[in-house]
Amino acid sequence: MTMVDPRPRLRVDLPVYDLTLDDVAELAAADEHGHRYELVEGNLLIMAPADVDHMRVITQLLVWFVANGYAQDLVLPTPGLRIKGRSSGRNPDLMVLRHSVAGNTVWIEPEDALLVVEVVSPSTRSEDRLRKPAEYAGAGVPHFWRVERDNGPATVHMFALGLDERGERTYIGHEAALLDRLVEGPPPTLA
After folding, report:
1. CA quadruple 131, 75, 27, 144: dihedral, nearest 10
2. Could you tell me if residue 30 is inside a domain?
3. For residue 81, what pLDDT is reported?
4. For residues 98 and 112, what is the distance between their CA atoms, to the nearest angstrom?
5. How far, CA to CA in Å, does 2 sit from each of 9, 133, 165?
6. Is position 10 within any domain?
7. What are the CA-CA distances from residue 57 to residues 63, 86, 90, 135 (Å)?
8. Residue 148 is part of which domain span?
9. Which residues in the chain come in under a pLDDT of 50?
């Protein structure tokens, strides 16, 4: 006997031309289910909405930054970050900006970002641990934090932008702290 899967399906009507970041913004705005959309070298990625623990980590960090003097308009959950012109854009879980940007901005330029944070999920491990940090470093974002939530309390891995042995941008200077301990004090200086 054939069973019909009762779960709702996502239907995405794609244009017949190469997608741009503007197209991705339109797709995300029309999505009724809260999916997140990214464009990587012209390839559309669709991510399921984050789970509650994921959102709690983001909220905890956002509140911590704002409570410690960062302006609300500089600490943004799940903003769009332009990586390469019109062909690549990511949605980090949290971003701290250097300065305020216009309220109607969808894709923030990398030179406006001071810190991007990714909270690792089971479905995005390789993206969050390997691909995204390389893209953010290549775009020149000064700080990258990765929050791991497997096997116990959430741990924040903090990296600063530097150069590898070939002179290419990469993240170096790894430090790690338990999230609950980190937020007991002030945020580190981001410069």
Report:
1. 0
2. no
3. 95
4. 5
5. 18, 44, 57
6. no
7. 10, 30, 19, 23
8. 50-182
9. none
Q: What is the pLDDT of residue 93?
A: 96
**Cβ neighbours of residue 101 under 8 Å, at least 6 residues apart?**
108, 112
**91: Cβ contacts below 8 Å, ≥ 6 apart:** 36, 37, 38, 47, 78, 79, 80, 81
CA angle at 123 for the pair 63 and 31, rounded to the nearest 5°: 70
Tens-digit pLDDT profile for residues 119-152: 999 888 888 999 999 999 999 999 999 999 987 8
In the numeric block, the tokens 């810190």 are attached to 115
Number of domain units in the chain? 1
- Convert the pLDDT of each residue in 14-27 to its tens digit: 666 788 888 888 88
Whether residue 39 lies inside any domain: the answer is no
d(CA 17, CA 5): 31
